[in-house]
Write a structure and sequence with these properties.
With about 120 residues, this protein is an all-beta fold. It contains no helices and 11 strands. Strands 2, 4, 5, 6, 9, 10 and 11 form a 7-stranded mixed sheet that branches. It has a 4-stranded antiparallel sheet with strand order 1-3-8-7, with no helix packed on it. Strand 5 and strand 6 form a beta hairpin. The chain is elongated and about 50 Å long. The termini are far apart.
């Protein structure tokens, strides 16, 4: 009923930039996004939080990306973006969109967490 679809990943050279997008959509339900964010997981490493943005607009970044990445949202489009600048090889990972949403259907309502399928970002010369 609710899906998160990421886009924008690919291959980029060190020092380059890339913007990831994540759009939330639903059918047969009404939903309200409380928070959205990005996680990433590199081979052999734990999945880590990259950046989040809550409904109030406040943001949070991992120390490793602070100053280089910017998370933003378009509430009207239920979309979150991750602008990545000055990319490093260490940023190479599978990036996942994550959202906390209040979902309302004809039978119930409640807060749930959702994950996108992930989009690969590879930083290499």
């Amino acid at each position: 009923q609710v899906q998160l679809v990421e886009s924008g990943g690919g291959l980029v050279q060190p020092g380059g930039s890339m913007r990831l997008s994540c759009a939330a959509s639903g059918s047969g339900v009404i939903f309200s996004i409380d928070a959205m964010g990005w996680y990433r997981q590199a081979p052999g490493k734990q999945r880590e939080l990259v950046a989040t943005i809550i409904s109030g607009g406040s943001t949070n970044y991992a120390d490793s990306v602070k100053g280089r990445f910017t998370i933003s949202r378009d509430s009207a489009r239920n979309t979150v973006y991750l602008q990545m600048n000055s990319l490093k090889p260490e940023d190479t990972a599978l990036y996942y969109c994550h959202a906390l949403m209040m979902v309302i259907s004809t039978t119930q309502k409640g807060s749930n967490a959702y994950w996108g399928q992930g989009t690969q970002v590879t930083v290499s010369s």
